[in-house]
Amino acid sequence: MADKNTELEKIANDVRACTRCPLYKGATNAVPGEGPVHADIMMIGEGPGANEDKLGRPFVGPAGKVLDELLAGIQLKRSDIFITNVVKHRPPNNRDPLPEEIEACRGWLDQQIELIQPKVIITISRFAMARWFPNEKISAIHGKAKRFGNLLVVPMFHPAAALHNINLRPQLEADFKKLPQYIRDISGAPAAEPPKKQDPPAEQLKMF
Ligand code: URA
């Protein structure tokens, strides 16, 4: 059997050759996603924007800068995370992906999840969120983790939302601050530092 890196690269190459929906016609590059095949954490955005389309890499534009800052704030390395999108080719003028485009692209995301088997998926777009939380509103469930078997899914606001509405930035930061604890809990790892006696009890893993 091919090793997992080879399989991940094969999925990426298949995505680059994909014609399952018309989006490939207007795109410069497909953006399959990037990160280690053994990543415990996967982030799923909406779809490539202009910068991503140009470079063939996810979250390399202004939204990516916000994402990098949010990750730096919790000492998470981007290089430890597999980052991808619901659709792998750029929708024209950054319009929302259509339901049939999301459906056509779904198999690629399925294959990536199946291969990588992340412990935690962070959805950073409403289209990614809809896969696990079809009838929920991001305003109600952002930052709250839900377990699906061995997988923990955490819906977050899209980092670009903080560019359009600066009031969302503190909320995004607060939600990202919950991630290290979620990751420790799902990994079964002990907390990095045992709480000192005078500390208030660590916040429990919030599930709903
Ligand atoms: N926004 C997304 O949802 N994905 C990207 O890759 C870039 C911006």
How are the SSEs placed, and which strands pair?
Elements: H1 4-16, H2 23-26, E1 41-45, H3 50-55, H4 62-73, E2 81-85, H5 99-116, E3 120-123, H6 126-132, H7 138-141, E4 146-148, E5 151-155, H8 161-164, H9 168-177, H10 179-187
Parallel strand pairs: 1-2, 1-3, 3-5
Antiparallel strand pairs: 4-5
Helix pairs in contact: 1-5
The structure holds uracil (URA).
Residues 45-49, 52, 58-59, 63, 85, 125, 160 line the site of uracil (URA).
Shape assignment = globular
- Count of DSSP-assigned helices: 10
Helix content class: 40-55%
Supply the CATH architecture. 3-Layer(aba) Sandwich
Distance between the termini: 39 Å
SSE pattern:
HHEHHEHEHHEEHHH
Q: Report the structural category.
A: alpha/beta
CATH superfamily: Uracil-DNA glycosylase-like domain
